[in-house]
User: Fold this.
Amino acid sequence: MSAVLIVARGVFKESIRDRVAYNLVFFAVLLMAASFLLAQLTAGQDVKIIKDLGLAAATAIGVLIAVFIGIGLVAREVERRSIYSLISKPITRSQFILGKYLGLSLTLVANLAVMAVAYYLVLAYLDWVTPDNVKLGWEAPATDPRLLKAFALIGVELMLVTAVALFFSTFSSSFLSAALTLAVYVIGHFGQDLRALGAAGASPALATLGRVLYFVFPNLVPLNVTAEVVHAQPVTLQHMLLATGSVALYIALLLVAAALVFERRDFK
Amino acid sequence: MGGTSSRPERSRRLRWGALGVLGVCAIGTQVALDGAFTTFAPERAVQWVRSPGATRRLTLGFGTLAADLYWIRAVQYYGSTKLSEAKNKNYDLLYPLLDIATTLDPRFNIAYRMGAILLSEGYPDGPGRPEEAITLLDKGIQESPTRWEYYLDAGFVHYWWRRDPQQAADWFQRAAKLPGAPNWLRPLAASVLAEGGERGAARVLWTQMAETAEHDWLRQTARVRLLQLDAEDTVEQLQEVVNRFYDQAGRFPSGWSDLVRAGQLRGVPLDPSGVAYALDPVSGAVDTAADSPLSPLPRSRTLSGQAR
Assistant:
């Protein structure tokens, strides 16, 4: 187990060295700039838009990091030929894969946590400068703790995307891995439409294909609760646990598959 | 070295110099381009994706943010069209933009409520399409059937823009039955039915909006409407004075000064914004002046004192 942690720590340190944390500055600046600009551009609902924007930016930044660092986790070791020294050490390839995955997941969770803090600071500022009579029209307080549920599920989604990217990177080039991972992300957001292809008038063969794709690919739609938390709608613990459990199974499946593929690769 | 700089030093300075010159030239060409080249802007804005369902699919998991962008675009579109001085301006894209915003985020409260107000606003300050406002509010009711504000807004559109007190009272009564509805809705429904086209119920509605609307623009609009109602009251009174002058003199007054000299007015009457009312010496019609911020008046439905 310690071997897994050593690899994970290495990935975490490397991502810090690669200045991944720069995105946090971008996130904070984006939110602050938006909070000032929106008052000029729109009519009402500034706080809703800031909430939406923050959650969307956290997702987009996280997905980009997960994809573009995830695909390099294995590929870069191979390209640098550092893989030879790694596999000669007392560490199994499964441990290597798991360590890489945990390291990037840790990076993403740490990023997300800092983004959540910046998000709440901007919302607290907005709450402070908004007159009380305007706040009466808000559906939920600016610093509503329920927003954390959305952050938690974004974290789960990012961990899944990382697993997908890592899986593809064990057997294909970086470019192809990125394309395939993004394709899985897109398909994951079309889940309901894939299942409803039959009802939409598609041929029986296409409808079956849609249903197969729906069950094979992870459905990412339940992980997106932005609308619910922003509009103060309930997101039950049962939903959180079920969605997380379902994704955890997909992550486990992808990691086992990645380990299997990686075990079979010949680096001699 | 006696003041002579080394070769690497000269080279470094040269590079800095080149950087400055190139920077100035780049900005210079940009300025020149701005003066010589204007980008083509179609006379009417184009909306590339008109299907709300397709837009929802294309946004992947970013539907609520896309809804915000469509809402901002709707507000900007309304504002720029309203300010436009084009003779044949129209607001054709307003409803599609609001429709997409509310499909992407079906609980987008302000897009329904303020969208309905923007859609109802009479031409040229708005598209003058109360039917579309009702359709938008119906959509909001489908999504949130217990939200009494949508019923109130629908009643308001029927009352103020469609001049249909029966329908308006019906919507107010439906709103009053919903949980959390304020207790003034039932008397309002009764008042609308009793008074028909009079201004009492309108004053109640606009006062409520001026006091409770969550956005400055709505509150300001409500305040202007209340001033317009005051102006309409005054126009009626002035019309009666003008008509009385006609009965006595056999002609309409040539201006307010005739009425002041006749002792029927103490001075030139000003509307609540401080601009003198307009008096047409030919027809005797009294109205707000064209340059008044309160003009044009909604010309409430049953102006009793029409010019003769």
